[in-house]
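YM 10:42: Osmotically inducible protein OsmC sequence, as discussed on the call
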Amino acid sequence: MEKVYTAVVTAKGGRDGHIKSSDGVIDLDLRKPKEMGGESGAYTNPEQLFAGAYGACYLGALGSVAKKDNIDVSEATAEVHVSFNKDDNAYALSAELHVHIPGMSLDETQQLADKAHRACPYSKAVRGNIEVKVLAV
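YM 10:58: structure's back
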């Protein structure tokens, strides 16, 4: 496999820490969300970062599969819900991708959304590891 691009981000301090990318574009303090015992404030957390990255990558895959069928998805949105779950003292993530394509029926959207889910690198990375639902909305 040929590497096309490698992102480098250094993390310190875990969920109550800091992340910084090698190019300095990302330079953020992290805090646990209030629901996990954290403090309120203008901080992000790993689940928000993963949801944003997953959504962006997924829309890229949606654009690629739609282009093959000459379908314009430039106004499509993917609202990604990433949950931090606990079950029997074990922790696991789960995700839901709520996909909306203006002007397209729910059935057509679902079919295209499922194709994109099969093609998306993030979906491939988590397949079989976390529960993911893709829903046309």
